[in-house]
Amino acid sequence: MREAHQDIRVWDPFVRFFHWSLLLAYLVAWISAEEWASLHEQSGYYIMVLIGLRLVWGLVGSRYALFSDFLAGPRVTIAYLRALAGRRAARYLGHNPAGGWMIMALLFSLLGVAISGLLIGADGVWEELHEGLAALSLTMVVVHVIAVLLASALHEENLIGAMLSGTKPRRGSDV
Amino acid sequence: MSELRKNTLSWVFILLAVSAAAVLLSGTLPVGASDDHESVRELRERGDIMPLAQLLEHAELRGLRVLEAELEYEDGRLVYELELLDRQGRVRERYFDAVSGLPLSAARED
User: What's the CATH code, domain B35-109?
Assistant: First the structure.
């Protein structure tokens, strides 16, 4: 039986703005690549600004935005993944341990894509790295979306909606 | 820090990101920076302003190194703003009317 719903604010305005404007800039960067060089470069700069702000926000931001809230050690993370495989993973109000590491992986791969793009010059090495990291980041985005859909199904909740509204219904068994 | 202040700070971060986006987008559009460049060339080609090279022939400028030259609108008229290195190694800013090439103000020192 489910307890009576009490909505709790989880994602603050900046976390939500960051999430959706990063997605938008990422799409713009993909679409403008090879098509519109200046827009492609500006979207890369914007992604760097966004990630820079998010890294600061992870240190000074609201409760569930803090790295200290969602970065778990390897033991906790592996235990979580095991529980997830058995479909008995606990529901987290903030990021779960696997989601937390997914976010760090996304942040740093996108930062790597942007920085390697910035360094593209006559030297072909950076261009190859840029394209390789871009492909890697796309793979991670796909994993991220699938994981969000699976976690939504597991806990019978709409996580995409929560990233828009910022709120989640509190339940007695939450972590 | 209270949650209320975190919420305010959250909006400050959004504002920073939006400002960055605005600055970046203004650089992407085809108008803007390149527009100024066009008009300087047009002005010179039409003979509305004295070319910079001709201005540098000016007696007062001979033997000085030009560090930076800008063409600006000041009080509705076109002005060359020159940053110069004088013989004593000091940086000076001088202003010249871009049409007549006449010096506008006394030297300013930094």
Answer: 3.10.450.40
Q: Mean pLDDT throughout B11-20?
A: 93
Cβ contacts of B28 within 8 Å, gap of 6 or more: A38, A39, A42
Question: Which chain A residues have any C-beta within 8 angstroms of a chain B C-beta?
Answer: 12-15, 17-18, 21, 38-39, 42, 45-46, 49-50, 53, 56-57, 60-63
Q: Chain B: nearest CA to A43, how far in angstroms? A: 8
Domain range list for chain B: 1-30, 35-109
Residue ranges in chain A whose pLDDT is less than 70: 1-5, 121-123
Sequence length of chain B is: 110
A90, A131 contact by CB (below 8 A): no
Question: In the block, which residue shows the tokens 């261009």?
Answer: A127
Question: In this predicted complex, what is the ipTM?
Answer: 0.81
The string over A81-92, giving b where at least 16 C-beta atoms fall within 10 Å of a residue's C-beta and e elsewhere, is: eeebeeeebeeb
Distance CA A82, CA A143 (A): 17
**pTM, 2 dp:** 0.67
pLDDT digits (tens, 9 = 90+) for A125-160: 888 889 999 999 999 999 999 999 988 888 888 899
- Specify the pLDDT at position A15: 95
